[in-house]
Write a structure and sequence with these properties.
CATH topology: Aminopeptidase
Number of helices: 5
Largest sheet: 7 strands, mixed
Number of strands: 7
CATH superfamily: Gcn5-related N-acetyltransferase (GNAT)
Oligomer: single chain
Distance between the termini: 41 Å
Helix content: 25-40%
Shape: globular
Strand content: 25-35%
Radius of gyration: 15 Å
Number of domains: 1
CATH architecture: 3-Layer(aba) Sandwich
Length: about 150
Amino acid sequence: MMTTSPLLRDATAADLPRVEALLVENKLPLDGVREALECFVVAEHDGAIVGVAGTERCGVGQYALLRSVAVADAWKGKGLGRALVSRVIADAESRGAKALYLLTTTAEHYFPSFGFRQTERAKVPADVQSTVEFASACPASAVVMVREIGA
């Protein structure tokens, strides 16, 4: 039984191998993770990375892409994903992003509780469309969602 909650903290370069391993376990793409790691948050428990979520700044920072939300199996259903997503939304807002976009093939029913709504690919700003995740890492069938920040 787990007696303490994981610590949420900014990711560091030293976390990259463990972040990538967790993303692979959750069948999420690794493309662009290294480059965006400075905007990632990890959940650490007893020295293990048990959760991750990140944003990728797009263009001059007006927009961001929510990406790489993953939780270790033992921590699923305990609110850790919600805590991670809430933290990266707050981080994007503090950096001045006007809107946060995401792509999902499995969680389109999860993200509306954070204020995300479905949108059309054609309405996504070019800065977001040019990210590796948007352009090639996620399938064209992925649902695109947006959350305006500070509106």
